Amino acid sequence: MALSQFSLGTAPYRVYNIGHCQTVELMDYVHALEKYMGKKAVYEKLPLQAGDVPQTWADCSALERDFGYRPNTTVEEGIAKFVGWYLKFTHQLESELLSNRSRK
Fold it and tell me: Which of 18, 62, 92, 104 is the most exposed, fewest CB within 10 Å of its CB?
């Protein structure tokens, strides 16, 4: 595939940004993780590092235009679901490891 296809937007695929379509403060993520993990984070606040960006935003307009879908999961809701999955997954993994050890 020629590089010109990419610059003309005719590549055979598309990448979509799937976010909440709103700016969310980093500390909102941290506070939600603290809440659902039941642990207080240890903070080491540093100046912006090379490659850090002061603000990001998910532009979901292409997703909405092409699929008629606009994400509406809040950070709080997404973190709660992720932490629930993570805790369940790690608990299952831990149980399997202990079970395998006892068989030896």
Answer: 104
